[in-house]
Amino acid sequence: MTDQPVSRQSPSLIGGASIIASVCVGAGMLGLPSSGAGAWTLWSSFALILTMVVMTLSGWMLLEALKHYDLRASFNTVTKSMLGPRVNIFSNLMVYFVGGILLYAYITSSGLIIQGVTGVSSKLASVAFVAVFSLVVWHSTRAVDRLSVVLVTFMLLSFVLGVSGLASRIEFSVLFDTVNQHGQYAPYALAMLPVALTSFGYHHSVASLRAYYGEERKAQKAILGGTSIALLFYIAWLVSIFGNLPRADFGPVVARGGDVDVLLAALGFAIDSERVANTISAFSAAAILSSFVGVGLGTFDFMADLFGFENDRKGRTKTWAITFIPPLLLSLMAPFGFVLAIGYAGAAAAVWACIIPALLAWKSRTLHGGKAGFVAPGGKAAIVLVLLFGVVTVLFHFMGLAGWLPVAQLG
């Protein structure tokens, strides 16, 4: 693990919540408007609230299972011990797939953003981005904590400045699509679930957070704080977008995979100045960076646990290499869009962020009685809810790929 909780000053809950929020917000902000366009405002908000509740519970269930193990333990150790080697191998593949593909998406997008600002080659920009910011993860969890607090604060300020122009122009007839008297919305929320799930996919960081605080209850509060912050960001973002850009005009944005530049161009009539557009672009850049270091931290700790690397300079350098170099190489060879990447990550994340934590909590209570130490709330009903949500999300993702889910005709 990156840090042992031996510092004289106890880590703050704000820092931990910022790590969780920063991991979530980067993935969700860029994929949600286009993936939620069919479901529109009310059903998209319902899908997000349900997902936030389930994903918060599943993170707590993972904490419950981890309480029986050393603070350096991560997904690999606890899954292998409780669910056996076969389940563990499959779970490990899903964990690394999600972490790797999200890092891949963030590296690719950061390169394009830096290219747009500086004119430098996007591939060279991606290499520089990884070289600089992956060192924060290599250094320590505390370094990620500090950077996350700064980035979440910056995101909040830039979000308020950027969205305030949109918020002041919200039309309720557009927000609730009143021109479409007989519109169908609920069926399209099904296809949104994989992206919504990934938008709350902070689970790489649960073991890191537990090690950082040295206990489960502070980590529990930090998780709830982080997912709550992310939910507020998401709903404010969707309301601001859906209140300005009519549902019928979302076709080009969806066709381009939710590209931020296309979205901003479509909103050009509602954005008063280049300053506001630049502020929203800066927010997007900060969201990508914050998610990169947050997901990078969780994947880094997972790989260190998986391979048994030491927590010294040499061991951390080995962990850094296997964490960041593969997604960087993949980004340089075959970049693609955010929504596609996040959709696949959502299907895989449903396995280890919902199904596996639910099974771990059930096994923990079977083996140990579930009474001593931290226990996730909700009893058996919560375990069943999290398990079913994970299974349904995986099914909906592959049904969407097969064309078996309804697709909204936009524009």
UniProtKB/TrEMBL annotation:
GO terms for molecular function: aromatic amino acid transmembrane transporter activity. It is found in: Cell inner membrane. It is a multi-pass membrane protein. GO terms for biological process: amino acid transmembrane transport. Pfam families: Trp_Tyr_perm. Belongs to the amino acid/polyamine transporter 2 family. Mtr/TnaB/TyrP permease subfamily. This is Aromatic amino acid permease. It comes from Marinobacter vinifirmus.
